[in-house]
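User: Predict the full complex structure for these chains.
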Amino acid sequence: MGVIKRGFYRLSIVSKIAATLFLIATLSILIVTLLHIWQTKHTIDSLVRDFIAVNIEGSEDMIIKSIFADDRWALYKFVKSISDNNFVTEIGLIAPDNRVIVHTDTARWRMDSVFGWPAKPDWIEIELSGHDGVVGTFVVRKNSTHLDGLIMQIIQRGVGIFLLLSLLSIAAGVFISGRIVGRLKVLLSHIDAILDKKWEKVGSVHFDEQDEITRILDAFYEMARELQNHIQKLGETNHFYHEILSQIDTTILICDLRFKPLFSNKTPAIDDRIDPALEALLADRKLLGQIGALSDGTLQKELRLQGRLRAKNLVATVAPLEDRLLITFANITRVRELEEQFLTAQTLSLVGQLSAALAHELKNLIVPLRLLLSDEEVPSPEDLRIIRTTTDKLNRLITGFLNFAKPPSQDERNWVRLADLIDETQSLLAGRLAGAHLHLSISLDRDLKANLSAKGFEIVLINLLLNAIDASSPGDTLSVSLFSSESGRFRLSVADEGSGIEPAILERIHEPFFTTKTDGTGLGLSTVYRIVYDMGGQIDVKSGSEGTCFDIEIPIDKEL
Amino acid sequence: MRMALLLFLFILCASAQPLRFGITSVAIKDDLFAVREWANFLEQKSGLEIQVVFAKNYDEIRYLLENGGVDFAYVCGATYIETKESAPIEVLALPFVYQEATYESLVIAAANSPFESLLDFENAHYAFSDPRSNSGAIVPIYTLREAGYNYRHFFKRVIYTYDHAESIQAVAEGFVDGASVDSIVYENFRNIHPQIADRVRVVERFGPFTTTPIVVRQSVDRAHRNALLLALEQMSQDPQGRKILERFGIERFAKPEHYNYDEISEMIQRIRGSVWE
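Assistant: Here is the predicted structure of the two-chain assembly.
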């Protein structure tokens, strides 16, 4: 039963209706047939009985007279006339003493023989009464075969007509349900198209029928059109806001309460910048506890992430958003860099001023001292050489101080072709490069001009190249490139293939007097930083195992 | 002249009254339409108006003949003998079969039955046609009597069909074991209903006896009697008449010079007292 039920449920609507109609038709045919058989049998029984009874009644006087006159032949002819049809096979007239008066089955029931009363259902008994009671009983045997055949004939015709009507009604049912299901299928395909967002496949279809389903379909198309418009508008709005969000430098991240990212304004949705940031955020156990207890308001934490080449500063803000968390990561690296640059510049400026004053005083003292030294007063040429070397070193040191303390004045600015300055520097250092067995790769924009101090630019370039030469091993290549970068700026890059600078040292390279060289003054890079900052430029250092690269960006014309 | 006028008036009066033709179903019930056609034929040929009167049995026809209920009738030889005792009638014509005005009384039984003579039917169901029929009752009663049997006790039961054809039918259907019938009717029946007759066979024959006559009351005008005889005799020469005769299984009607019903009369005399008294 369950199997039939499940099988039925799986059928299409048309099959269900057809199966139901077939079942109803079959059951109806069965019931009607059985009723028909019963009714027909009953009717035919009554008809046969009535037929015989009417015949007997019509000839009652003759029969009774014949019985009393013992006119067997007349009686025989009478029963014979009744049996001479298709409804009756045999008929007998039996006397009250059970003796056969006459019987059409002459071979079996001879006149005056004792009649054996049949107990079969297809026998009919009709008593014939005279004035003094029953004078005889007619015993009639129905022609069951013929009657059953007759019944079957009637039933066959009835069933045939009923079957035909049933088939017609099933066909009509299937046709109507087909028309209904056909339209429902159209509706279904359009719903599928909507689910698949294939709006072009959804369109009004004309149907001849103007019934409820067509009205539902029309209403559905109207609804689908409105839905499509709404979805389009929503998409446009989404796109609009997404564009806005994606333009924001701040990364906006929406997570569930377990910090699983659900949305990000950056594409790809969850970009590689988020995970480390989120990890760094989640590493703070204390903060996590605070976030857990956060019902409203926001939490903020500054994070410093060590990137592959440079560190990054982020401000993470966590705010509850219903059952989610809204986390933003604002990149403040540049702010921090500028702050550092400002501090460095201020420090350098102060040191410069002090150095200038000191150097001036030193120089004022040393120069006369040297002049005062006569050849006679020199104890020995050896001592003299040491004194001279020392004073030369002092002088170089002081010159360096002066270069640092008083960088080439902005007043010395001129429009110069930078390629020419690079060429000069290259000539200057050609001996050092050859001595160190290094190659120099230069790629230049030879037409690039800048309004700056040529001396300052040369000091920067020489210092960077000298550092690069010191960091390189024989056979390495130094790369110098010069191109215009962002609008109004040019980029000078100097790169070596050395072993790189350790992060701890990298953080301090701009400090004056910080040096890793045995005979270094620790003023070279600080001077470079000072000059570049004075020119309004920036320095970006990337250092790794494959080497170190100094990227310097300087406005072409600071005044602009 | 006066006599001639009276005779004419008499004929007119006589002609105004139709002649009543008595027929029993014993002999010809099988074909009542033929009887009507017969009467019409006789009317046409004799110029006399004829009215057919059907009688149920020979007793009734005898009564009608005695009381003027019919003027002429087709009866059994036995009925003629008995009626003649009480009423002035005479033979008008006799039917001829096989050139003879004789017929037989046949004992018949079912084709597959073992009977070989009338005497074999002891304790059997037997059919007589009419109690006053020569071939259908008197001959077997007489034969049994001669053999020392009273038919009432000899047979288990005797039924009367009042029709030779029906007696044949009763045997064919097995309602009775045997029956005595008129040979002319039997032969005619064979021709008309061969499939029924095939279920029956002749066990014994008695006769020949003079055929069943058409008798006429002597009170009927001689001219009319002659006219009727002429009409009956003309039947075998007329196509329509022949057709009617064929239906009855008869060749022609005629009044032979020599005939007698002595044998029948004797049988009646012999059994009288034992049958219907």
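Chain B has two domains: 2-99+211-266, 102-209.
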